[in-house]
Each structure stands twice: as C-alpha cells, then as structure tokens.
Amino acid sequence: DFAPAVPRVTGTLSFDEGSLAGLGEAILGPAVFDFPIVQSRNPWPEAPFGAALIDGFDTDLALKFGRLDIEGGPAAKSVALSLSSNASGTGLDGIEATLAGGKLSGDLMIKRDLDGTAGVSGTLRLQGAAAEEFAWRRDGRPLVTGALGVDVQINATGRTLAGWMSSLTGGGSFSLRDGRLAHMTTRAFGQVIRLADAGKELSEDRIRQAFTDNVDMGDLAFERLDAAFTLAGGTLRAPNIVVTTRDGASSGSATVDIARLTVDSEWRLSHDVGDAAAGGGVPQVSVLFKGPLANPSRRVDVTAFASYLGIRALEKETQRVLMMQADILERELLSRQVLRDREALDRRNRLMLEARERAAAAALAEKAKAAALLAAQKARAEKEKEKAAGDPLDAIGKILENGAPAAPGTKLKQLPSSDVGLPPGGVTESAP
Question: Which of 13, 109, 327, 420 has its Cβ near the most Cβ atoms within 10 Å?
Fold first, then answer.
C-alpha cells in the first residue's frame, strides 16, 4: 500500500510482439476478452471489467510494438502510443501504426467509475489501407478491393465489452479509391436486355436467374466510393453510399448491428442505355446482403428491372404498330397517287385525242372549204366564160369599164347606134 503517495512509472517499453487483448487487459482487467464457458448469443465477451494491471500506479509510458495482433483482423505493425494513467482515467494518446498497409492514428480516453462502469471516447483515423484485408470473402476471394480510408469518433459506456458495443455512439465517414466490387458487373443488364429483345419470354424469376448468372461474370470497377455514417445504440447506419463508376451508376446503403455483428445492406445497380431508356427510366437492380457480418447471404431483387423490360417491350410493340400504320398509310398514299397519276394520264390522252380529232375535223373543214371555194371559183369562171361567150354586151361593158381590148377571138356584132347609144356608124367587128 503506497497510499497516499502513488508511485509514478515513466519510461519507454518496446516489444517485438504483442496483442490487442493483452494491452486491453492491462487497462481494463484480466480476462475481459475471454468468452464465458456457457454458450452465449452475444458475439462479444461479457466478462466484467476488473482491476487493471496498472492500478495503483500513475504511468507515463511510451509503448512500441513491432507487431500487435488483432483477433479477427490483420495485425498492426510498427505500433507506437503513449500510455498515461492516473486517478482521472487512462489515455492512449498519439496512436500511430501501420494497419493493412495504411496509416492508423488516433487517441482514446478510458474513464473508470467505482461501480465498475467504464466509458471510452476518442477518435481514430485510417488512411490508405487495403480494403481486401477487412472485406468479406467468397471462395477465398475478397468481395471489395481498393484504398480504404476511415474517420470515426466513438463514445461508449458499460461494464463489459459487450456493453460497450451495444452503447456505441458517434459517427464518421469512410471512402474507397480505385477499387472493385466483385460479382457486381453492370454488363449483366445488356445480356438480359438482348435476351428480351430477341423475343424470349422472361418472367421475373427467369430475369432474376439470367441476371444473377451474368452479374457473377465480372466486377464493378469504381473510381470512388464515399459514405458518411452515424453510430447510435451500437448500430452503424450509412444511408447513402455513393459509387462513381465508368460503366454505370451505383449506390447503396448499409446498416450494421455492431452489437450482434449482423448486416443489412442494399446496393442499387443501374446501367446507362442512352436513348434506349424506356419511359424515361433506366434498368435498375437491387443486390441485398443480409445476415452475419462475416458471411451474409445475397439476394437479387429484379422488380424494377422487370418493370423496365415490360415498359421497353410495350414501347417497342407500340413503335412496331406505328411503323406498320405508317407503312400502310404510305402505301395508301402511294396507291392514291398512282390512281391520280393514271387518271391524269387518261385525261391527258383523252384531251390529246379530242384535240387531234378537232384538228382533223378542222383540217377536213378547211379542205372542204378550199375545195368548195375552188369549185366556186371554177364555177364562176365557167359561168363568166359562158356569159362572155353568150352575151357580147358583157364584153363591151368590160372594155368600157376597164379600157381593155376584148379577148382575142371575140366577135362583135354590129348594132345600130341608136340601140347602144354610140356615134353614128356604130362599132365595127374587130378582127382576130
């Protein structure tokens, strides 16, 4: 019993290897990381916090570990921290370590009450870690890869580790860079759409089976994955996980019950089809993960995708009917145009025939008129000749009118001057 003078321990301690459980027992008491002998439903140890190994000392120690094993996760390397304790609590300050290839830093403060209750608060930051070291695995292959970054602020109160986990509060954010989500390729949309366009009858179950078969054939490469989360009552909620990809849009949400180590997560995959969007929408599928955090079950929900395919089929059928109607209307228009052209040709031919007939009739009329005129002239000439031959007075009249001699061969009959009003002696008959 060193009271009232409490010994103070300072200095530097370096270890080649250590464990997080051992460090925790030094602060929270022995066996706090042990599970009870009786099988418990709680995945966390339920042993109450006890007397810490450093109780009765004020400490200010610089601790270093070449390797610090973490049960259920990757080992931390090159660990350095400052352990300070006194009557007000125990602090783990200036934590620095290499975890899964990334840099871990932070500070934690643990305060103990006389009734055995302990509270923990602090902040932790992890940058550039390999996400595959923490990810679920399927047939030994990690489902997530990329550079992981996490910022978290935590608070918890309880008498056991299980109590801490069920009372966790706080929040933070996490991000992934240049990674891949295994068995989540968006190219599966194109395969199923081609089957539907080929005329295959696809029920919702067949769509789900076809999509599941194709989605496992590739990975979803992403540039960024970002999310903010909250902690309340030992449950982590990330309602909006944004994924930036080259092949299509994707988003998700997750709820992790840390106290029970269960997960309920939904990932929404969609594919950009450009002008082929049906009803203004795009194909979308939800991939659901639910169950134990270490090995959740997966279920694919294709309800939205089936609706898209139905709308797409309806639009294609409507377009086909409209094209048929347009083709019918075009044929009818062409038929009417041909009929109009035929009627116009018949009318033109009829008009040309009528014109020809009129021209022929006019030509015949002109010919008849010319013949009649010629006949009339001939008749008049003959008549005049007959008159000239039969009546010498007409010839004399012409001579008197025109002053022209009578036609050769014309014999003038001597008439008494008293009969024609000529000078005495009359007119002698001209010789030929």
Answer: 109
Distance CA 277, CA 262 (A): 37
Task: Name the residue type at position 323.
Answer: M
Structure token digits, residue 46: 């339920």
State the number of CA atoms in the 13 A half-sphere of 53 facing the CB: 11
Tell the residue number behind the tokens 């008494």, with chain if given. Answer: 416
**H-run or E-run covering 319:** helix 303-390
For 352, other C-beta atoms within 10 Å of its C-beta total 10
Among 17, 378, 430, which Cα is nearest to 386's? 378
Long-range contact pairs involving 142-146 (C-beta distance under 8 Å, separation at least 24):
142/182, 143/181, 143/182, 143/183, 144/176, 144/179, 144/180, 144/181, 144/182, 145/179, 145/180, 145/182, 146/176, 146/177, 146/178, 146/179, 146/180, 146/222, 146/225
Nearby residues of 239 by Cβ (< 8 Å), 6 or more positions away = 253
The pLDDT tens digits for 84-110 are 998 888 999 999 999 999 999 999 999
Count Cβ atoms within 10 A of the Cβ of residue 74 and give its class: 0-12 exposed, 13-18 middle, 19 or more buried. middle
Q: For 147-188, how does the pLDDT look when each residue is reduced to its tens digit (9 = 90+)?
A: 999 999 999 999 999 999 999 999 999 999 999 988 888 888
Q: 262-284 in b/e burial notation, b at 16+ Cβ within 10 A? A: bbebbbbbbbebeeeebeeebbb
- What does each C-alpha distance from 258 to 70, 79, 169, 384 come to in angstroms? 17, 25, 11, 145
Residue 430: what pLDDT? 43
DSSP H helices in 391-432? 392-402, 417-420
Distance of CA 188 to the CA centre of its chain: 14
Residues in the chain: 432
Closest to 289 in 3D by CA, of 313, 256, 316, 314: 256
